[in-house]
Specification:
This protein is of the alpha/beta class. A hairpin with a 3-residue loop joins strand 11 and strand 12.
């Protein structure tokens, strides 16, 4: 392998921006690292190049461990987004610079310079200065300079980010042609999916510092394994359905599925993916030869060059929860993204407000992970209540659970406690992992949250109020916090307290997800401060009605309640 990185970790102020990343790039392979801004892609590249220190892990280039070497000894070519050319040097001077600092003979410098000018298409430009070049020409100079000293590997950090679409396309072809001719192992970082699909031999998708999936571009697009990759790579229709003996079910519709990779088990919940191009849109039910989702109304129709993009509105599918596109908050329908060729759109034109029959040609099933839960225990009666209640919730949600013991002092006692907790929870979980921490609760939770994302942190309510502890637990990650005050059964009714406004929408969506697993009914409550008038009251009622409709759409029976200034707002169960 030309490039091997093993368990790379980099943190700033205790926050991991690169988290246990490992990957391998073969000789002559062009590997694209894709992800949203802030996902850690550029940091990985800079760690390989030696431009950013590594907290832990190793980097090997052509079998050499270069982890402790300075950048100039790693034999790496690096191309930056903003060129980083020397403005006082000509094109020739910039290309020659890496060779001159290595004291290469003058004749060899001239020969290599001319060779590279021809390779990047800049013959005749050697006397110009960077400010006399276009953006695309500057990036070609940067590429030639990176290749001048004949590096073992080439690293490109969003090199076309500042360029317009046509120049980007031209440079992509140039880079691909040069990379194939030189057979140099290359890692190309981008957040542009079209760029990634066009360039990559293999593709790696990052998010929140983790490398989530690696594979050929078509494999990750058509058969992703994770929800993030499914929704990040192109437009996705993603819903939670159910495994059947012969396929998967969305509402009343069953889809045959030849390869139920990892999704075996009738009645299991799965995420069902179909892309816009998998959606068939016809003018009659009889014209569809694929499983029928239903009759839809066209919300939007847009011209996108070679194809037409449609957004369709369908009635809810019983027992099915939409993930992407997200259901409109407060609406009573689900949305479907579809695409058609311009030939199809001319033969059967559709405009907003018109009806159409919708079928699906192909679906792909991902294992639906249920909730991801972290349950804290320190052996106290309060912690035991959290274990018992959290275990009941986890089994109903078919959750992935981590049991985290802390504060025991004796590892053997902690292991015994965790084993007993696992046996008490029993089967019915997607997975259960046990860990022992020697730190306090906030530090232990922060360490676990750096390893993976948790939807829900479950903890026994302290015997005495400790708001500062609870605040610290909430700040350790992007999880919700469930406090269990005493032993209790799974509730049949749940009170969800919200304030009127945008932040409450996320609370309602998560509450619906949790309550649906419990099989409970919900009451959504808001409390209006003193002095609000009838208009404020009407606004609050409209908002709560939208919350209720959203819960209904996600499979939860809900009602609403508005309280006045004398009420004390609280969220809990009864």
């Amino acid at each position: 392998m030309s490039i091997v990185v093993e368990q790379l970790v980099k943190s700033y102020d205790g926050h991991p921006v690169v988290n246990q990343v490992s990957l391998r790039v073969a000789e002559g392979e062009l590997f694209v690292l894709l992800g949203p801004s802030g996902s850690g892609k550029s940091t990985v590249l800079r760690m390989i190049a030696g431009l950013t220190d590594i907290d832990s892990g190793r980097v090997l280039l052509h079998g050499r461990d270069v982890t402790g070497l300075p950048p100039q000894k790693r034999r790496v070519g690096f191309v930056f987004q903003h060129y980083a050319l020397f403005r006082h040097m000509t094109v020739a001077g910039n290309i020659e610079f890496p060779l001159r600092i290595r004291k290469v003979p003058e004749a060899d410098i001239r020969h290599r310079r001319d060779e590279l000018l021809d390779l990047v298409g800049l013959v005749g430009f050697q006397g110009r200065y960077p400010q006399q070049l276009s953006g695309g020409q500057r990036q070609r100079v940067a590429l030639a300079r990176a290749l001048a000293h004949q590096p073992d590997v080439l690293l490109l950090d969003e090199p076309f980010g500042a360029l317009d679409a046509k120049i980007r396309g031209d440079l992509r072809r140039t880079v691909r042609d040069i990379q194939r001719e030189l057979r140099i192992a290359t890692i190309f970082v981008t957040h542009d999916q079209e760029e990634a699909f066009e360039l990559a031999d293999r593709l790696g998708v990052m998010n929140f510092g983790r490398l989530l999936e690696v594979g050929p571009p078509d494999e990750l697009y058509l058969r992703p394994e994770t929800e993030f990759v499914a929704t990040f790579l192109g437009t996705a229709n993603l819903m939670v359905g159910e495994v059947t003996p012969s396929g998967v079910r969305l509402g009343p519709v069953e889809f045959p599925l030849g390869n139920m990779k990892g999704a075996a088990g009738e009645g299991r919940r799965v995420q069902v993916l179909f892309r816009p191009e998998d959606v068939a849109v016809k003018d009659s039910q009889e014209a569809l030869s694929w499983p029928l989702l239903g009759k839809a109304v066209v919300e939007e129709s847009s011209f996108v060059g070679s194809y037409e993009r449609l957004r369709l509105r369908l009635p809810p599918l019983l027992g099915t929860r939409p993930i992407a596109p997200p259901a409109p908050f407060g609406g009573d329908s689900i949305r479907i993204e579809a695409s058609r060729s311009q030939h199809q759109s001319r033969r059967y034109p559709l405009h907003p407000g018109e009806a159409a029959w919708v079928g699906v040609r192909r679906v792909h099933a991902l294992i639906h992970p249920g909730l991801s839960m972290l349950i804290l225990t320190d052996g106290t009666p309060e912690a035991q209540a959290a274990l018992d209640f959290g275990g009941q919730v986890a089994v109903r949600a078919h959750a992935r659970v981590t049991l985290l013991a802390h504060g025991f002092g004796d590892d053997s006692a902690a292991r015994q406690h965790l084993q007993e907790a696992k046996e008490a929870i029993g089967s019915g979980l997607a997975s259960i992992v046990t860990r022992i921490a020697r730190e306090g609760a906030p530090e232990a939770v922060a360490e676990e949250a750096s390893r993976e994302h948790f939807d829900l942190l479950v903890k026994g309510l302290p015997a005495r109020g400790r708001p500062e502890l609870l605040d610290r637990l909430l700040q350790t990650g992007q999880h919700n916090l469930l406090l269990v005050p005493k032993p209790r059964p799974v509730p049949a009714r749940v009170l969800v307290c919200v304030s009127v406004g945008e932040p409450a929408k996320e609370d309602v969506l998560f509450a619906a997800r949790l309550v649906r697993h419990l099989g409970a009914e919900a009451t959504i409550l808001t409390v209006l401060p003193e002095g609000r008038d009838a208009q404020d009251l009407e606004h609050a009622r409209r908002f709560l009605t939208a919350c209720m409709r959203t819960m209904w759409l996600l499979g939860v029976n809900a009602k609403t309640l508005v309280g006045g200034c004398g009420w004390r707002g609280w969220c809990g169960t009864w």
